[in-house]
Amino acid sequence: MSCSDIQRLPESLTRLHNLQTLKLMNSKMLLELPRGLKVMKNLCFLEIESFRSLLCTPPGLGDLIYLRELSIFIVGRDASHQIDQLKELNLGGSLSIGGLENVSNTKDAKKANLMTKNHLTSLGLLWTDGDEETHSTEYYEELLQGLQPHHNLEAIHIESYQGSKFPNWMSALTLKNLKKVSLESCRICEHLPPLGKLPSITDLDLHEMDSLKYLDDERYVNGEIPFPLLTTLSISDMPNLEEFGRGNSVENFTCLKKIKIRWCPKLLGLPFLPTLRSLDISGSISATLLGSLRFLTSLTSLYLSDIPELAAFPEGFLQNNNALEKLRIDSLAITTLSNVLDNLSALKVLYLCDCNHLEFLPEGLKNLGSLETLEIFDCDGLRLFPAATMEHLSSLRSLIIVNCKKLKPLSGPMTQTTALQDLELIALPELKDLPESMQLFSALEQLDIWGCEGLCSLPDWLGSLESLISLFLSNCKNLSSLSDGFKTPESLMRLDIVGCPELEKRCKKPEGEYWPKISHIDTINIGGKFVQNIKNIVVTKNIL
């Protein structure tokens, strides 16, 4: 019963006494399960992937003695919803326990018997955020201590824990198989458990750890390497985080390949990370953090977005990052990209979005000989994209320009052909005519023009695009005519004209005056009505 908007399952479901598996994956609206679920004695697997909307779990789940997988158990205040319902269940797979603030006696935590559930691979321990007003830090610490899992555990998620320290079972000796750790809204913890000494950890996700200053402040001896297998790190909403590590003489994070940083305003910089490939930074950050990127010489993907303080990139930014292949810049107040692109000889994808103060593309764009995809979205200040720039982008295969209110794309002359295959021009009010430079786009296979209301006619020379396979014209309300000498390219196999009312009328079959000019195309879509011409059908019989 997955992927539905159902909110409550009917009680009649409990009549299915032989049911063994009930899956409710991606049911984000689900509020309640049948209260009589405990009578389904043969139930083995109850899988609920998206359980955040669930108000409670049914009473008496401890009666389902054959249950082997229970995605979520929510502790309630009465006896039939207490944590001891988990005691006799031999659960495996993934289990999240919510409503932990309803455990009235911290000693009852041990009644969940998590230490004996050696088939559990993933465990979530969830309090209700904001509950710290009704419980002391000692309550949290004693309760979490009693929820010690089996050492086979591979993933743990702890949310809204308001103790000041983590239990001693979160150590290398106890959780030697732990691979993934997620800590969220643990707001008063100033120190993490010794995660750097966990031998198997590969993924670390930290969110809203308000008091944390260092990711790792442990001491290492006898050749110990901190975080020996960590490959993915995500840190967000950490207002006091200053450094990754403190006082360590050995290298940290030697296998780290991917980092995501969001809203860490005091983070001073990144350490030397020789294996880092992907970096995603957003929200408030320090200038020194951005400056430290020049030392990340192995970086292949960089995404910068929504950084309110950033009006200009620091001197020397990305000058040493000649392995960078993908650069995405989104929602920044920068006015120039000067000197940013000069040394990015390996760059294959450049994405610019919502940079409204950027008026011109930099000269350094010409140095991007490996660039294959260029996408420009919502850059209202951008005025010019010279066609001559295309002559230097010898590897460019896809150019997409969307909703740039002042931009006149591909203006000016061009002297040589390009390798461009896909061109999309969308919501460009200054586009009055297709630029003549496009005649040299001999490799162009797909041309999409959407929402360009200033465009009134298609030129004669469009027929010279000898590789064009697909032409899509959409919501160009003033596009009404084809020039007298207009011919569609012989290579054209599909033509779509949608939301261009006058042109649609003149291209309709069979009465439209332009129909003879387009009737030979294999697939034609005029206003949502398709015409297909089936050609060259060869029927061969008696072939086994």
From TrEMBL:
InterPro entries: LRR_dom_sf, LRR_R13L1-DRL21. It holds the Pfam family LRR_R13L1-DRL21. Residues 83-209, 436-499 form the R13L1/DRL21-like LRR repeat region domain. It comes from the Eukaryota. This is Disease resistance protein RGA1. It comes from Sesamum angolense. The lineage of its organism: Eukaryota, Viridiplantae, Streptophyta, Embryophyta, Tracheophyta.
